[in-house]
Amino acid sequence: MVPEAPFRAFRIHADAKPFRAGIEQISAAPLQAGELLIKTAYSSVNFKDALAGTGTGKILRVPVLTGGIDAAGQVVASRDPGFKEGDAVLVTGSGLSETRDGGYADYLRVPAAVTVALPAGLSLREAMILGTAGFTAALALWQMEANGQTPDQGPIVVTGASGGVGMLAIDLLTTAGYEAHAITGKPEQFDALIALGAQQCISRKDLYWGQRPLETSRWAGAIECVGGEMLSGLTRVIHPYGNIACCGMAGGAELHTTVMPFIVRGLSVLGIASANTAYCVRRSLWERLATRWKPRHLETICRNEKSLDALPLVFDTMLSGGSFGRTLIRL
Ligand SMILES: NC(=O)c1ccc[n+]([C@@H]2O[C@H](COP(=O)([O-])OP(=O)(O)OC[C@H]3O[C@@H](n4cnc5c(N)ncnc54)[C@H](OP(=O)(O)O)[C@@H]3O)[C@@H](O)[C@H]2O)c1
Fold it and tell me: 133-271, what's its fold?
């Protein structure tokens, strides 16, 4: 049933001067094209949501839309034979909060081609504790394994470890049989990271990468969320034929290195771009996240469950590097 009454949405006006974003009442009329109308149950907060919702990053490619790159809920109307009313579904990335309305609203209209049926083994809530962050961690490990990474090569280090991608990556790696190490700017969270499965925790402040193009190698691979100096340093300390999954830029977008890690150690730096992952990969990774790669500590990693009103505060915490785990948004 298409909603008759107006409903709440966190709208972003990227073209307004000054920039403006907040909760508004909208009706079904301006909802965009798409075969499926979804009643949203949960969304989540990712770093990209904070960039979009504060205007700190140029994420929107249209002037005005609803924020939220993730959504999970139930189909209330379908014009696609693959989905019917009542189906539980999820959408991550795929243009949400970039070119089309996202998950920070009671209702969302989306194309069937980007909508994933909720796999058995995941609840709507669990799907959004994972959200783009969990999907990104899974995509990273999937690409690393496709490029030869195996648990017996040695530990995988996770950077930005206390953030959403970071905590889910530690849990997922451990579940998948890897030894996970954590690098964090929050030594006070060592115990929490160890409880997720991290076998070593290193404070960001204590890191010293040395001066040479290649230093003594320490890890077989990395799931890297920070960028800048962190990524540059890691290229010099990965075991031969290891992989760095380059996911983020929470600490900087630059990369300074030499060709030595590539031509001497056979290092691969793998680009991880979750937003527009092919549908067949998307579906199979969500299946995996619901079964043999399902992180074991989802409820622990979900540190906050909030309503739309809390978004501005969550965004500010995130952009100042203060994230700890995942924030779920309940609609
Ligand atoms: N490529 C993709 O498809 C994709 C998908 C999702 C996310 N990402 C990116 O991955 C990164 C993490 O995303 P998220 O959603 O997990 O964000 P998040 O929950 O806010 O986590 C970010 C973490 O990065 C670390 N950090 C923050 N500021 C930093 C700084 N100035 N220097 C060094 N480390 C800093 C902090 O962890 P510690 O204090 O523990 O170090 C923080 O908790 C972001 O850059 C995001 O854009 C990319």
Answer: Rossmann fold (3.40.50)
Q: What does the CA dihedral 318, 325, 165, 8 come to, rounded to 10 degrees?
A: -60
Q: What residue ranges of the chain have pLDDT lower than 50?
A: none
Res 33: pLDDT? 76
Tell me, which fold does domain 7-118+297-330 have in CATH? Quinone Oxidoreductase; Chain A, domain 1 (3.90.180)
Residue nearest to atom 18 of ligand 1 (CA): 163
| CATH 3.40.50.720, the chain: domain bounds | 133-271
Per-residue pLDDT of 72-131, as tens digits, reads: 999 999 999 999 999 999 999 999 999 999 999 999 999 999 999 999 999 999 999 999
Q: Looking at the chain, which residues constitute the CATH 3.90.180.10 domain(s)?
A: 7-118+297-330
Q: Which residues line ligand 1 (CB under 6 A)?
A: 46-48, 132-133, 136, 160-166, 184-186, 204, 225-226, 247-251, 272-275, 318, 321, 323
Reported as a single tens digit per residue, the pLDDT across 96-113 is: 999 999 999 999 999 999
Q: Identify the H or E element spanning 54.
A: helix 47-54
